[in-house]
């Protein structure tokens, strides 16, 4: 059987069958030998090597050799294609790639911890390493976003970026910038602590002292309708939840007030207070917050006020009278103050629930307003102002005994007079 024509090479008259013809043969040690030097001759056929018997001596390549040549050619073609493509990309987009990944003739990163020019950088909620790097480069804190992203990816664990404002410098190395953003001590924030039962004007003063926003700015921003307060509200009193808050530098008055109001709405929602019941609940809770001594008594105080309302009795709360006089730091009042009908908050004179909240209540006072204790009490008096101990009474006679005990204690403690 003869080999196919395209795979046959005819020997010359001067070259005997089986001659090497000066060509390299394909061997396992040199697979490229004949790839670039021509076809590979095979042994003469079994007819003794006479070229006239078969129209010329033909040599056949083995199947393995032919397959090896084809595979090598394919690989070489692929290598050339990839190389050419890479060259096109590099020469066409090299500058952008060098900027992104920190290559190029000029350094893509600053050195050191900065040039001494202080600045602030804010991480927003939802920021990623890429978005942070882009903004850092835009404001000149790092040289390229790629250098910062490279530093982020080089960390053994994924960095956790906490939203907030951080003290930085211009022209920081990517390493220094990342370290500054991951340092909790470097996070810049202003803190304000609002105790339970603090009245509105005192809250404003605390915000001004803690954050630096002037009281006048807070008052100008405090439009109840803008914060979703009940229609009855004429101020934000009662709806600024008492807690500890931290704010980034430069925060404005509206943002601060909205944060406190939203936190109050959250508490009311958690206690199952419907939006239409917020006004009544906050008024009662603010009263409980100012009048109750011990926390376990909040629920009894709540019941006393509700019992009195149900029975058509005056609330007779000294805390409401004091609030109406503009004094938000005491509960006791004088006979003249309790008789002053011009005071709209005087519950010794005006029947029903107090006209508006008198403080900003916390969670326990709100819970007590929603879940009052069961009991027949209609009187109470906190007889020991040091400990907050309170006596609850069902009759006026019992109450008079409790008041006498309180007066005796007051005589012994004139500093409370």
Characterization of this structure:
This protein has helices at residues 63-101, 129-138, 145-153, 174-182, 200-211, 215-221, 253-270, 278-291, 298-310, 318-324, 335-338, 363-370, 396-412, and strands spanning 118-123, 164-169, 187-188, 190-193, 244-247, 379-384, 389-393. Helix content is 40%, strand content 8%. It is mainly alpha-helical. The longest helix has 39 residues, at 63-101. The chain folds into three domains: 118-188, Endolytic murein transglycosylase (Dna Ligase, domain 1), CATH 3.30.1490; 190-275, no CATH class; 277-416, no CATH class. 29% of the residues are buried. The strands form three sheets. It has a three-stranded antiparallel sheet, with helices on one face. Strands 4-5 form a two-stranded antiparallel ribbon. The chain starts with 62 loop residues before the first helix and ends in a 5-residue tail after the last helix. The chain has 13 helices and seven strands. Helix 8 (278-291) packs across helix 12 (363-370).
